[in-house]
Amino acid sequence: MKIGIDPDLTKSGVALVVNGKIEFLKSLGFGELIAYVVGLDNQQGLVTVLLEDVDNKKPVFPKRLKQANKGQSPLLQFVGHAPSQSGSAAKVNMSIAEDLGKVKATARLIKELLEDNGVTVKLVKPLRGPIKAAKKNSAYFNKITGWAGRSNEDTRDAALIALFG
Q: What residues have CB less than 8 Å from 102, skipping those under 6 apart?
């Protein structure tokens, strides 16, 4: 029995796979996720959690930000946007980096809490290639997994991690 988790700050994608078949697919909040996995491990035993290793995701590098802002005044490069601007590449990149940091912290807490409760957790590199395309495309996901229920990108990613991670 495998549980795939695509960690996120508000709700993480969770998939339960038994004998290569998806049995459960849902987005769960942090507390719900911990209770679900620990409860399942206590009832069924031998649960292996495959958690997407978001520490593998690349951060935003300052060198790229400088290249995106060439020709701007030093103040704009430092601040990232002028007061009259609604946004800039630097501001958007910093927002993405901040969100990624929050997801990384959530993933670490999920791993720590599950391991403290005796659950085996394996970190899995983010999927690549044709399998990863199923995250964005529900029809393709349903075709390769046999799932017919509702899903979103996070739950599909969790199922793909459990099946192919």
A: 9
Distance CA 49, CA 6 (A): 11
φ, ψ dihedrals at 125, nearest 5°: -60, 145
What is the pTM assigned to this prediction? 0.80
Q: Which residues are CB-neighbours of 125 under 8 A, at least 6 positions away?
A: 53, 56, 165
Distance CA 49, CA 113 (A): 12
CB–CB of 64/89 below 8 Å? no
pLDDT tens across the length of the chain (165 residues): 999 999 998 999 999 999 999 999 999 999 999 999 999 977 777 889 999 998 876 655 555 555 444 555 554 454 444 444 455 666 777 777 777 788 889 999 999 999 999 999 999 998 888 888 899 999 999 999 999 999 999 999 999 999 998
SS3 (DSSP) at 137: coil
The partner residues of 25 in beta bridges, in order of sequence, read 15
